[in-house]
């Protein structure tokens, strides 16, 4: 593999003089004082630059001596940018499209109830949430969304990378665990990840206002759809700094470990203009997910049974 540099040399000359390295050689450069990584089969020395990495030196250090190419984030951007633009707004935020599995907020349950829509017993959604929500979001739903987004958007390079990931995974682990064991291993990791992802993201969103387009200013829309969880060493670590969800929505490109620095400024701005800034303890935030689903389910049942 060729080694990329930071100097502005001509591409043709650089390619002609570009040295090659074996994986054995690359893997030796995984120290704090000596970091190389590979992107698109080019080797980069990021030893000095890693200290200026926007996400922090620890994140990029995870890939020292390894291939850091990865698949394109187009599929995630396609979905998540819509969420940040119009959070918790039906027909505009894909994250509140629950495919008739759950009814959310106060308006949707009543609409479903009046139309006698009963795809599932929504008055029990706070109970079957534990069976459907955390366990299957990433292993099943996200995998389907990833592949379908690539196909619909004709991101064929991304699709090829996705399939190559599975090929490389099974080539690596099948000799140790067999094909079935490799499948179980892959899905077990995603099963654990899915639980964390659902609880951490929904404690900031599903408990907030979920409705149709309110036609209000962007700042107020973000505050109505998000809330924070109190800062502590554990909360920061457990949530990956997504306990500062308000600031994350207002400054989505800011590295998450810096969000706490601007939280006091955002809070003072909200107080100045009379905008509610919600912050709560972690346990209450997690329990509010279930309470919100129970409340919406009861609204559905009342409307469904109403003559």
What does this entry look like structurally?
The chain is of the alpha/beta class. Helix content is 57%, strand content 6%. It has 2 domains: 2-61, Flavocytochrome B2, Chain A, domain 1 (Roll), CATH 3.10.120.10; 72-134 and 191-307, no CATH class. The strands form 2 sheets. Strands 1-4-3-2 form a 4-stranded mixed sheet, with no helix packed on it. Strands 5-6 form a two-stranded parallel sheet. Helix 4 (74-85) packs across helix 6 and helix 6 (125-152) packs antiparallel against helix 7. The longest helix is centred in the middle third of the chain and has 50 residues, at 156-205. The protein is globular and about 80 Å long. The mean pLDDT is 89. Residues 1-21 are annotated as: Disordered. It is found in: Endoplasmic reticulum membrane.
Tell me the β content. 5-15%
What is the β-strand count? 6
| Overall geometry | globular
Number of helices: 12
> Largest beta sheet, briefly?
4 strands, mixed
Structural class: alpha/beta
* Total domains: 2
The average pLDDT is: 89
Largest sheet: spatial strand order: 1-4-3-2
Helix content: 55-70%
Low-confidence stretches: none
Rg over alpha carbons:
23 Å
Order of helices and strands: EHHEEEHHHHHHEHHHEH
Quaternary organisation of the protein chains: single chain
Distance between the termini: 72 Å
Enzyme class: oxidoreductase
GO biological process, one term: unsaturated fatty acid biosynthetic process
Subcellular location: Endoplasmic reticulum membrane
GO molecular function: acyl-CoA 6-desaturase activity
Short description:
By secondary structure, the protein is an alpha/beta fold. The protein contains twelve helices and six strands.
């Amino acid at each position: 593999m060729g080694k990329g540099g930071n100097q502005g040399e001509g591409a043709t000359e650089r390619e002609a003089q570009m040295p090659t390295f074996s994986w054995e050689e690359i893997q030796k450069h995984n120290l704090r004082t000596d970091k190389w990584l590979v992107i698109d089969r080019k080797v980069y020395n990021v030893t000095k630059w890693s200290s200026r990495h926007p996400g922090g030196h620890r994140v990029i250090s995870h890939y020292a001596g390894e291939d850091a190419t990865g698949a394109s984030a187009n599929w995630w951007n396609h979905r998540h940018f819509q969420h940040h633009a119009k959070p918790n707004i039906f027909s505009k935020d894909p994250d509140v499209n629950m495919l008739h599995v759950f009814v959310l907020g106060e308006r949707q349950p009543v609409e479903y109830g009046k139309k006698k829509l009963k795809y599932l017993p929504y008055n029990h959604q706070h109970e079957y949430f534990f069976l459907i929500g955390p366990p299957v979001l990433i292993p099943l739903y996200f995998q389907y969304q990833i592949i379908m987004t690539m196909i619909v958007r004709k991101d064929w390079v991304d699709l090829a990378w996705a399939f190559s990931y599975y090929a490389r995974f099974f080539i690596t682990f099948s000799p140790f665990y067999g094909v079935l064991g490799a499948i179980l291993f892959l899905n077990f990791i995603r099963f654990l990840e899915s639980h964390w992802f659902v609880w951490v993201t929904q404690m900031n969103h599903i408990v907030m206002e979920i409705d149709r387009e309110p036609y209000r200013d962007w700042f107020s829309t973000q505050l109505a759809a998000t809330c924070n969880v109190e800062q502590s060493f554990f909360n920061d670590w457990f949530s990956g700094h997504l306990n500062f969800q308000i600031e994350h929505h207002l400054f989505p490109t800011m590295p998450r470990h810096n969000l706490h620095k601007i939280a006091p400024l955002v809070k003072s701005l909200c107080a100045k203009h009379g905008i509610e800034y919600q912050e709560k303890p972690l346990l209450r935030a997690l329990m509010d997910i279930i309470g919100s689903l129970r409340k919406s389910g009861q609204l559905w049942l009342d409307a469904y049974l109403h003559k």
